[in-house]
Amino acid sequence: MNFHKLTPEAIKNKVVLVRVDFNVPLKDGKIQEVTRIAESIPTIRFLLENGAKRIHLLTHIGRPKGENVPNLSTKLLIHEVSQQIGEEIEYREAFAAGENRIQLHENVRFWKEEKKNDPAFAQKILDGTGAEVFVNDGFAVSHRAHASVVGFAGKIPCLAGFLLQKEIEALSPFLSEEKVPGLVVLAGGLKIETKIPVLTHFAVTAEHILTGGGVANNFAIAQGYNIGESFYQEEFVRNARRILKIANQNGTGIHLPIDVVCADDPESVNTADFPLEDVIGSAKIFDIGIHTIASYIEILSHAKIVVWNGPVGLFEKEKFERGTKKLLEFLSQHKNAKVILGGGDTLEALKKFHIPKESFAHVSTGGGAMLEFLEGKELPGIEIVRKK
Ligand code: 3PG
Questions:
Q1: Predicted model pTM
Q2: Diameter of the chain measured on Cα atoms
Q3: Which of 106, 226, 287, 303 could form a disulfide with 261 if both were Cys (CB 3.0 to 4.6 A apart)?
Q4: What is the pLDDT of residues 34-58, one digit of tens each?
Q5: In a domain, 382, yes or no
Q6: Does residue 144 lie in a domain region?
Q7: 73-118, pLDDT tens digit by residue?
Q8: Is 184 found in the same domain as 99?
């Protein structure tokens, strides 16, 4: 892929607007995991060191739905971002330029125009900041055609930041429309909804799809299991059935947990391991069981490429962390497979289990963006910086 690249000539003495994805997990106003910030520092430092006149950073945090939600304010990031850049940055409330060389603007999703890609909103940002060049470094949000991602195209030059380039280079070798020998996909996380297109794609190209979390529950329902009161999305069971059919036609194994860890609610002290077919009544599934871990590890041990998105259990709670922890530990030691991980939850899990990112072929900052890219879709935020 050929991009309009970030060069010293393109940004020298210019006011530069940078879309980053600093959508980091926050708890009680504190950042829990900083990878998404750290990964954009090379782009910001390059701008500083190569004479950009002023740098305006734009990001979203969470999904505030056009409302001003104080616990999703970028004010909470100022200290961390300043520390990582090694220079004071200034918080700006409504896209007006301040004094500092680097300014971080308020959460773009506090304005409902952001999601609608309202041209007047993009223009308001350009007028307020005086930006002359746009750099997209927010790979993780590049699947969204939102104003701060695509709205500056055609108005000022749009360039690819280093993180965006790095992600595309790392993920491109794994794009394929055909069956990929040795490809095993691990699909977890709570909701199947966002994963339907990519699971449909991998039902053709992967050899095996191993499921966990809410995603597995949807497949369990589609295959007629009772899953007690476990979470699943009824409106997508039909899609799960379709994916099973496609997998069947293409010789792809879709694997459900054979056993699971259940409790009546996540705070409960009483948990128990059950075979999947014995889950009944008020039981809720919160992790995969010990036999499932063993069978998934057996399949993964023969894999040549592994794509992982989404934890297989509620790993934030110690009693439900085992499945995610054991599988990540195994993959971090798997020397014969290229392992690609993605998604904010996965980054948090690596931090929690002290597993270095360097143990894997690539750890993507993108969740949905990584999946859509691997599915072969054109991502709007990439299209605007691509040379055609
Ligand atoms: C992500 O967390 O995947 C990105 O920041 C995009 O967030 P979104 O799914 O809320 O658009």
A1: 0.91
A2: 67
A3: 287
A4: 999 999 999 999 999 999 999 999 9
A5: no
A6: yes
A7: 999 999 999 999 999 999 999 999 999 999 999 999 999 999 999 9
A8: no
Residue 92: which H helix or E strand, with range? strand 90-92
Task: Supply the residue whose CA is at minimum distance from atom 7 of ligand 1.
Answer: 141
The token duo for 133 is 């060049």
Q: For residue 170, is it within any domain?
A: no
Pocket of ligand 1 (CB under 6 A): 21, 23, 63, 140-141, 144, 344, 367-368
CA of 184 relative to ligand 1 center, distance in Å: 24
State in Å: Cα 248 to ligand 1 middle. 31
Q: Which of 115, 139, 165 is the last residue of a domain?
A: 165
Atom number in ligand 1 closest to CA 367: 3
Dihedral in degrees, nearest 10, Cα atoms 187, 191, 192, 196: -100
Same domain, 72 and 36: yes
Does 182 share its domain with 93?
no
Look at residue 272 in the predicted model and tell me its pLDDT. Answer: 87
Domain identity same for 57 and 117: yes
